[in-house]
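Second attempt. The first submission of Adenylate kinase isoenzyme 6 homolog had a stray character pasted in from the spreadsheet, which I only caught after the job came back as garbage. Lesson logged: always re-copy from the clean sequence file. Corrected sequence (184 aa) follows.
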Amino acid sequence: MARKNPNIIITGTPGVGKTTHAEQLARATGFTHLSVNQIVKDEGFQEGKDEETGSLIVDEDKLLDYLESLPLHSQGGYILDWHACDLFPERWIDLVIVLRCDSTILYDRLTARGYKGKKLEENMDSEIMQVLLDEAREAYKEEIVVELRSESNEDVEGNLERVEMWVEGWRRDNGGADREGEGK
Ligand code: ADP
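This time the job returned cleanly.
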């Protein structure tokens, strides 16, 4: 494995702040932000919609083939932003960030986004029952899974600082971009 940069998953229940974090982290590090939801829509990888919740049913094989065709596993420097994480092969991934949010705050964010009924309920339950955190811990080594709070702008700032420091450390440890003058 000779990746110059790490690959990072940012996951969590819809509304926890994945896009917010991924966009800012991409700007700060120069990494490529992959909004998996957007890729699924743009590339037509959806197999349909769950009638009750309205969420997309994804053709995971097609999605993985697409990701495999990117220099993700060979060069690194990708931020994968999705509300699921366990389908990405372990060997591609160096850090899994699970964003968490208080349920009152999440409720407000999701209703502002127009979520209601079953879809709202399922996502609220998922956050309260830490479904994504458990999924991440089951799919990846414990030491690469980090749970971060995303309730305020200060949280975002603090999280980004922490992750940027982690990226610098990773590059040092892996003889990566810094040594080759590609780092910040
Ligand atoms: P996701 O990508 O996980 O669905 P978003 O990044 O789209 O979540 O965030 C959902 C909404 O919540 C947006 O309006 C965003 O500005 C807001 N938000 C997310 N995280 C925070 C935070 N830590 N502090 C303040 N607002 C936030």
